[in-house]
Input
Amino acid sequence: MRRDAASASAWLLLALSFLAGPVRAAEDAAREAEPNTRVPAGVLRYAPSVFPDRIVVSPAQDAARGFAVAWRTDASVQAPLLEIAVAGDSPDMGQPRRVRAVTRVLETDNGVGHHHRADVDGLQADTLYAWRVQGGGTWSAWHHTRTAAAPGVPLALLYFGDTQNKNVSHVTRVVREGMRHAPDARLALFAGDLVSGGDGEDDNEWGEWFEANGPLPTSMLVAPAAGNHEYFEEFEDTPQERRVLGAHWPPSFALPRNGAEGVAGTSYWFDIQDARIVVLDGTSALDLGTARAQAAWLDQVLADSPRRWNIAMVHQPMFSPRQDRDNAILRREILPVLERHRVDLVLQGHDHVYGRRGGPVSGQATPQYVVSVAGPKQYRLSPEARREMAPVAEDTQLFQVLRIEGDRLRYEARTATGRLYDAFELVGDGQDRRRVELPEGRIDERTCTRAATPKGRADRCWE
Output
């Protein structure tokens, strides 16, 4: 009787699930798709002013000895100051050091803005600094940033896949959850497509990206990769059509100036405690012919690395988990360098799903290739990804926490609500690394149950 009752219950649940499918599809179709930003037409929500905004601190090449700060004001402010002092418990932190910024102009639909950059060198390792930036007759708050410690000190960092669209509406909660799970993080990596771009409100999207990140860009170092949405198509639909880096990228971040030839503004590297981080520009490699130059540069940067751990970040994946995408140029030029140097992690975005796999050499623990997404745009996995990657996920916003301590690197992928989705450790030195899977506490695989998005797109799970 119990078996019959259980069987009947299972059939009932299956029938209800089948009947609910059309109802779910109708409900989704009736829901209004959100725009990329919350800004109504004609509203200047993110116009520049005399008050400093879009403030972000990024690592110097040696993150223990310096950092650089970018910020924005209106056009009345020229070459403002940054003030910095060792943070103290009294409001009197002594006479601050002053650093003069350089300024560049950016005109957008929100008006003419002046973007400023101040490079701060000569700092002490593992020291909490208080700093502020100048506007027009005003200053920002005093912010706290701790410099990197020496090698051998444990390091926590965050990694986010594409944020891209609806940043304030949907990405805010992911960033906050990431900071809650890693309050000791000193670095945040963003794997490209920070904004969507190309829809006539680029500056609003950048404004929303900074608003969604809240205190993160001033409380820890920020290192982004440029994605294809940081570029735009110039002379679109003409024989002269070409990819051009968007005007927002160069002034929005104060990144190290040590990139590959021809890709200096969007490729760079830096050392932070036991890790060397190398950031590549996949769009330039695929569309502008710089793959070989970046591969040669990457080879040299990795060959010279004195750090125990090496992490690469690039927007487009070496192994794409989305159907009908194949970045063959990256696998031909970049992948051999990553494999030869046994890079530990390759952090990627672009495909708006989650997937992890090892490299083409069976039995090697490294590199581990990861694709993730933080924003609400959600695609579907390819059959190949389901066969070759584990774990995988659809319809899931995620963030990642990395912790490095000695000869151990722990990786966790968590959902927007903080639930553990993927976890493993890399243990050991150099060529002798081994991967230890950590299945305890992981939630079940997530798949997309919608037939189409609210806009009717069957190739995506959500807009």
